[in-house]
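Example 4.3 (complexes with small molecules)
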Amino acid sequence: MPLNTEASEVVEEGEWRVSDLLAIKSNGGEWTEDQVAFLVRSISNKSLDDCQLGAMLMAIKLRGMTDRETVALTCNMRDSGSVFSWPKEWIVADKHSTGGVGDKVSLPLAPAVAALGLKVPMISGRGLGHTGGTLDKLESIPGFRVSLNVSEMQEALDKVGCCIVGQTADIVPADRRMYAARDVTSTVKSTPLIVSSIVSKKAAESVGALVMDVKFGHGAFMKDRKEAEELAKKIVSVSKNMGITTTALLTDMNNPIGRTVGNALEVREALDCLRGQGPADLLELVTHLGGELLAGGGLAASVEDGRRAVDRALNDGSARATFCKMLQKQGVTEEVATSLCADQPDYSLLPTAAQVTKVPATDSGVVMNVDAMALAKVSLALGAGRQRVGQTIHYGVGVVLLKVRGERVSQGEAWAELHHDDPLPKDLVSNIQDALTLYPQDEVFTKPTLITARYS
Ligand code: IUR
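Answer. The structure with 5-iodouracil bound is encoded below.
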């Protein structure tokens, strides 16, 4: 493929005509690092207009980017805003998930690895569409504040070891403009654009170790395993190229994680996990992802040792004590924080729904599958999430699964509970019935693998 067929001469040293650069990419060529830097500068200072930005994103989506280009894009995006600077002796780490249903992993994970010596300045998002957001879950705790300034973050990391906060305007501003444009130009699903968006924000946190939870399946952004594999490999290679020790786990998202979907309900389950009493799938994700971070940060001799350390921190109360301190650093009163984190927690302090309706099984059998996407849609219909940016959410509502994969249910027995504030929308009970698939009585249940691959 000839390079740069429509591109013309350099306009001035180090500067290019945007239309020439667009021609290079749309003809299948490769941009130089300087050209990528120029494009990101032009996005930030708005000398690249919305039409050109849309064309640039579409050219990237259709033609792809080499690793060299993606690294250059990511570095320049990182440098478009503030980059945190932490004390040299700190080992700073973070996790990112591509988003799942019932995914409350960050809540126990951050304090568990912080209790073991890592510093975790976790920047999370809000929920939109079918996946819930970590910030919304935390905001269901009375008093919790997701916006800390840099010095408050530094203080939280110094005294507690972790904080979970929202993105501020000065972190990777180029991504803000690019993401808004991707949303309206059908260019969200582009591996180099996803990789640069995610990794630039983690790099701006100045992390030394990163673990990615790349989800695939019915309830995930990536429905297809091949697409998820491609993303996982590219994130690892780009992030490592930027000096961040990175691994990615490819995890199944056909069933929701744990037994709860909905903000306050998920906080309860995260607190159960922090008392060593959480569901097995949540524990598996927290220990595996935490093990990767501890090994990546050099605080465990191996991933296996790291996993065991996380398990211990969840069982000996140290992760829970760290979470309790984090809550207080982020605005929760001592009384509420200690009551939630007690051996006998007072969950009545969390918002609860006005009504609980049980959903009976229409048949008998062993639960083979609870469709994560169907459950997410039910939870959204109950008001647990947002269909539009800025929509208010009901913190207490959601779904509790009384039966999950591998468990037996009899006809007429309740297998789920709907927690709702408003009268149930018509058809909701029949919609949730469609989420449940049972094995015929005589088949043997084999537990599907949750973590299916690892890339490093
Ligand atoms: N999350 C991000 O931070 N960036 C993206 O492009 C996607 C998810 I998709």
